[in-house]
Amino acid sequence: MKVTALIILGCLVWEGTAKPGFPEQEKDPEFWKEWAQRTLKNALTLQDLNKNVAKNIILFLGDGMGIPTVTAARILKGQLNGQNGEETQLEMDKFPYVALSKTYNTNAQVPDSAGTATAYLCGVKANEGTVGVNAAAVKSQCNTTRGNEVTSILKWAKDAGKSVGIVTTTRVNHATPSAAYAHCVERDWYSDGEMPDEALQSGCKDIARQLFENIPDIDVIMGGGRKYMYPRNTPDVEYPGDKKHNGTRKDGRNLVKEWTDRMKDKRGSYVWNRKDLVSLNPNNVDYLLGLFEPGDLPYELERNKETDPSLTEMVDVAIKILKKNERGFYLLVEGGRIDHGHHDGKAKLALHEAVEMDRAITRAGLLTSIYDTLSVVTADHSHVFSFGGYTHRGNSIFGLAPTMSDIDQKPFTSILYGNGPGFKLVNGARENVSAVDYTSHSLAFLVCLITIPQHRSKQLPGTSCCSLEIGDSWR
């Protein structure tokens, strides 16, 4: 049983400053559950589906992986294998069922990864920036948390006696994974070091603490986020001389030590580098905590293959540990840095992340059976990412379009982003990108979609006028 859900995100020019509210009934979790059941019943009447009861569930979440990203990643995968690319199949393309999913938050037309994670993990739409709480909880207002908590499929699976796991290329307490176990009105409360005193005094807990306290027996946890687990100013084990990677906790707690002490008699293992991970014998490990970076894991293209595991390697170990449970397992796998690459306008980094997630999906398929495992591949939102320019078959996905712009008779990249700071000007005109190394990992593709020559030097309200830039970061 395999399902691919692709995300369509409409990028519209927003006019006006009004912020209309949403219907009061959307604050009630039962509203969303009843709607979901009606949708499922309608779908079941239309198709002869595999209705076996799944013993195992693997949810692959490509953060920010909209339809243009999927298409571009498909081409890149083929080109990395020496093909033209367009004819290639991603692993998700081989799945028997494909669907489209629309995403929004209860208070946002364009959603973020926190509210969407609450939706697909807990079955309840929520406000932007909140995790594991319903829409009655207000972002950053601690006193709106209590009574509005909602639980996730990871908790449901654990309560049913299944093994559960989280694997991500971001921090394990980042927006997507945190909705699996936390109830927090602010997605950025990674540790108590990021929380205001008022929230702490009101009894709200940081997300790192909730990871180990709310569901204390999560079987597999892998990703980044080490610094949020250690007392403030504690040097990092991998970067002891770099203070920006020091611990951030104000409460003085060492959450890693607390976990290892609790799991020492339960065949638990803590690892912080690739070597220790791949040397594990999954048959001898029942609980695994892997924190491989102080923050997010490095991009696949920039990964140190000696010290940092790939997403595929983490998934491989996770499934081998979880599948030992005769009752089955639930595993959340996030390709989280697809989103980060797109935020920075660096398509090469984003697309290689998507291809790596495809490898992880392939590996998971080899380790499981379609007869008892439901595998779902989806995204939480898209980006203002596209590509065009009438490129020829086999043209590098990162290359130039074959024709010149009819505005300034200069070349342009086929990859486009509909946001950014405006043109990069050279001597008062748009840069000639044919002189730029567009194969660079750090190249940020920002190409103008709406050309307003007299205002090239700045971003206009309500427009998407931008050009290819190097090293810019936009969110």
From TrEMBL:
<comment type="similarity">
    <text>Belongs to the alkaline phosphatase family.</text>
</comment>
<feature type="active site" description="Phosphoserine intermediate">
    <location>
        <position position="113"/>
    </location>
</feature>
<feature type="binding site">
    <location>
        <position position="334"/>
    </location>
    <ligand>
        <name>Mg(2+)</name>
    </ligand>
</feature>
<keyword id="KW-0479">Metal-binding</keyword>
<feature type="signal peptide">
    <location>
        <begin position="1"/>
        <end position="18"/>
    </location>
</feature>
<dbReference type="InterPro" id="IPR018299">
    <property type="entry name" value="Alkaline_phosphatase_AS"/>
</dbReference>
<dbReference type="GO" id="GO:0046872">
    <property type="term" value="F:metal ion binding"/>
</dbReference>
<keyword id="KW-0862">Zinc</keyword>
<keyword id="KW-0732">Signal</keyword>
<protein>
    <recommendedName>
        <fullName>Alkaline phosphatase</fullName>
        <ecNumber>3.1.3.1</ecNumber>
    </recommendedName>
</protein>
<keyword id="KW-0336">GPI-anchor</keyword>
<dbReference type="GO" id="GO:0004035">
    <property type="term" value="F:alkaline phosphatase activity"/>
</dbReference>
<dbReference type="Pfam" id="PF00245">
    <property type="entry name" value="Alk_phosphatase"/>
</dbReference>
<feature type="binding site">
    <location>
        <position position="174"/>
    </location>
    <ligand>
        <name>Mg(2+)</name>
    </ligand>
</feature>
<feature type="binding site">
    <location>
        <position position="343"/>
    </location>
    <ligand>
        <name>Zn(2+)</name>
    </ligand>
</feature>
<keyword id="KW-0449">Lipoprotein</keyword>
<dbReference type="InterPro" id="IPR001952">
    <property type="entry name" value="Alkaline_phosphatase"/>
</dbReference>
<dbReference type="InterPro" id="IPR017850">
    <property type="entry name" value="Alkaline_phosphatase_core_sf"/>
</dbReference>
<feature type="binding site">
    <location>
        <position position="380"/>
    </location>
    <ligand>
        <name>Zn(2+)</name>
    </ligand>
</feature>
<feature type="binding site">
    <location>
        <position position="63"/>
    </location>
    <ligand>
        <name>Zn(2+)</name>
    </ligand>
</feature>
<feature type="binding site">
    <location>
        <position position="381"/>
    </location>
    <ligand>
        <name>Zn(2+)</name>
    </ligand>
</feature>
<keyword id="KW-0325">Glycoprotein</keyword>
<keyword id="KW-0378">Hydrolase</keyword>
<feature type="binding site">
    <location>
        <position position="339"/>
    </location>
    <ligand>
        <name>Zn(2+)</name>
    </ligand>
</feature>
<dbReference type="GO" id="GO:0098552">
    <property type="term" value="C:side of membrane"/>
</dbReference>
<feature type="binding site">
    <location>
        <position position="176"/>
    </location>
    <ligand>
        <name>Mg(2+)</name>
    </ligand>
</feature>
<feature type="binding site">
    <location>
        <position position="63"/>
    </location>
    <ligand>
        <name>Mg(2+)</name>
    </ligand>
</feature>
<keyword id="KW-0472">Membrane</keyword>
<dbReference type="GO" id="GO:0005886">
    <property type="term" value="C:plasma membrane"/>
</dbReference>
<keyword id="KW-0460">Magnesium</keyword>
